[in-house]
Write a structure and sequence with these properties.
- By secondary structure, the chain is an alpha/beta fold.
- It has 2 domains: 307 residues, Vaccinia Virus protein VP39 (Rossmann fold); 66 residues, Phenylalanyl-tRNA Synthetase, Chain B, domain 1, CATH 3.30.56.
- The protein contains 15 helices and 15 strands.
- A 7-stranded mixed beta sheet has the order 5-4-3-6-7-9-8, with helices on both faces.
- 48% of the residues are buried.
- The model has no long low-confidence stretch (mean pLDDT 93).
């Protein structure tokens, strides 16, 4: 009925075949590897306490994430799933790893257990949207909130539902992964503010079919008000590719404007979404170090994501190199050459973890196109001379 597998230093019993009552996704091992390093990085600088920090894996399935946190980081863990079959398996996995003193299984509705208890670290990893659990999670959490969204189609604008679920309008642009991530952060920001709490994203990333957010939570009405000021909108022109961000206070002016400054075509608006930094560089460096010294299942991929996040610019959108080259009808040059040229021309530029063929820069689209033409000429000349 069950197979024994291993993630990190943790043994886990999983169903031989996929079932509706016990969920386990082996493809999310990458996410769990980063989580272990992230939680370890978060708790390591905290002063020692008489009681260990409390952590809840509220939608646990097999319990793999919570069991790993208990075994590999050493926190006091509540591992919960409303499925009776999952609950029984969680107890077996706790026993298998000999962590009964630090981990306890629960068979409750996630919202109920979160509303009835406070936890230092709250993790909600649902199948689909986290929205049905966000309010309870935001009320329960004291220090760190970890959130997953796998309903990327409505978040990215490929399917309807983003406005209904997240109270935000999305756009299906070439940088839709970042828009989706920032819409999720915007929704978390608003839900936390109801309880006079503020969000400080430590590491936010998107991979394949999911978005993952690790965010510090701070208490206080003033801090909550400040976090609300980091919400805003992104304007996008589908005609020329021009894009820019603006604050909530500028929404009325932008709504009346309606036309692109570059080509005069109609502009489209996404938001409200989070415009602030979606990661903290120092924290990402700590996570990178933790990944390097821990036993992980997919260390190279995890390290690559976090390493790119460390130096990624805090600009709320990115540009697809190949898409711009296609519009200009030119062959793409090496992305590194374009980034170097942007920097030599006085602009900030970096790669982005959202796409291997994309870059971030504070240059506007028309400036990027002009620089790209220069890069192409230089690259073509160097190839002929070889």
């Amino acid at each position: 009925m069950f197979l024994e597998t291993k993630e990190g230093k943790t043994k886990i019993l999983v169903p031989k075949q996929r079932t509706k009552s016990i969920f386990y996704n082996p493809k999310m091992e990458l996410c769990r590897d980063i989580d272990i390093a992230g939680v370890a990085a978060f708790v390591s600088p905290l002063p020692s306490q008489q009681a260990p920090l409390t952590y809840i894996d509220a939608l646990a399935g097999t319990g793999v994430r919570g069991v790993r946190v208990a075994k590999e980081v050493g926190l006091a863990i509540a591992i919960n799933d409303r499925s009776k079959s999952a609950y029984e398996l969680i107890k077996k996995n706790i026993k298998l790893n000999k962590i009964g003193e630090s981990a306890k299984a629960y068979n409750e509705d996630a919202n109920v257990i979160l509303l009835q208890n406070k936890y230092d670290l709250v993790d909600i990893d649902p199948f689909g949207s986290p929205v049905p659990f966000l309010d309870a999670a935001c009320k329960s959490v004291k220090k760190l909130l970890l959130t997953t969204a796998t309903d990327t189609a409505p978040l990215c604008g490929a399917h309807p539902g983003g406005l209904r679920r997240y109270d935000a309008k999305t756009l299906n642009t070439e940088y839709h992964k970042e828009i989706a991530t920032r819409i999720l952060l915007g929704r978390i920001t608003r839900d936390l503010c109801k309880y006079d709490r503020a969000i400080l994203p430590l590491l936010s990333y998107s991979k394949a079919h999911f978005i993952r957010v690790i965010a510090r939570v701070e208490k206080g009405a003033k801090k909550a008000d400040e976090s609300m000021k980091r919400l805003g909108f992104i304007a996008h022109c589908f005609s020329c590719g021009n894009r820019f961000a603006f604050s909530c206070s500028e929404l009325l002016e932008m709504s009346l404007k309606k036309k692109c400054d570059v080509c005069g075509a109609k502009i489209h608006i996404a938001g409200p979404l989070y415009l602030g930094a979606i990661k903290e560089k120092g924290f990402c460096e700590q996570v990178h170090e933790e990944l390097g010294r821990r036993e992980m299942g997919k260390p190279k991929e995890a390290i690559k994501i976090v390493a790119t996040c460390i130096d990624e610019l805090d600009i709320p959108f990115y540009y697809e190199h190949h898409a711009i080259c296609k519009a200009l009808k030119v062959t793409p040059s090496p992305l590194s050459s374009l980034i170097d040229t942007l920097r030599s021309n006085g602009f900030y530029a970096s790669r982005t973890h959202f796409s291997d063929s994309a870059f971030k820069t504070d240059a506007r689209m028309e400036e990027i196109k002009e620089i790209l033409k220069k890069v192409m000429k230089s690259w073509a000349s160097s190839r002929k001379s070889m």
